[in-house]
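BUG: 3D viewer hangs when loading the predicted structure for this chain

Environment: internal workstation, default settings.
Expected: structure renders.
Actual: progress bar stalls at 90%.

Input used:
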Amino acid sequence: MTTWMDRCGDFLLDRALDAARRRARLTPASLRLSFGQIEYLQRLARQGKSPTAVVMLHGAAADKTSWLRLARYLPQTLPLIAPDLPGHGASVADLALDYGIRAQALRVEQFLATLGVERVHLLGNSMGGAVALAVAAAFPRRVASLVLIGTAGAEATPSWLREHVCRSGVNPMIDVRDVAGYRTMLKIGMAAPPYVPGIVLRALTRRLIGRHAINRKIVADISRDLDRTADLSRIAAPTLILWGAADRVQHVDDAELLRRRLPDSRKLVLDGVGHVPMVEAPRAVAAACSAFYADIARR
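Structure tokens produced before the viewer hung:
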């Protein structure tokens, strides 16, 4: 049963996310596709409609709000689009759907084609980075560039998380049962998690627990085709590989594997940062992305 305190926590959480969305000048939008509804955030370019956009793909069990802090500091010369991938956030979450990497990549392509976006600068974190690799390999004419942040799918060294899950059978990033478990998840994901008021932390915990079944399905599905190393030889798009040196979810050695295998790539590793640099160090990530996009424009 929902208590008064629960409702207060949900209200405060929603207000905080809405305020962050408005600071980033993003507006909510929705699109019905063949597989279901997609909810997304967008920011149009100052000059109006553009055939090119920066499209941001979040990680497993996350959602489009992962990008709010980064979006605030990105320049407005290109439009931004941040979808809730199927199974996540407010988008369709049908247990009968396949949430594997290739399936999600095909849905991203359908989403972009329906929106009329001709070329994209794909920016992906974790699972979203693996989806970005799959899109770039399958639809090279669609992808103008890649920014890969703590990307899954090209493992050089097993991460702390992988070894923990193999050893214990428990995935602390999704098998959260209480507020203490949520705090543990934050500490694994970030080198220095921000302070979150207790009432908001309880709201976040309730929401994650409520999505446990779909999150378990997502993790099971992506495990079948998460390895995207075979895609790397088919990717020619300019690529920025960006990692946190303290990443416990995807080992920092994976960044060097990607740099070696992607011919037009560069690598930046941020000290004192974990698995979600766009949340932990949004200004530094925005500066790196802005310089990267400016360099591509000069070409």
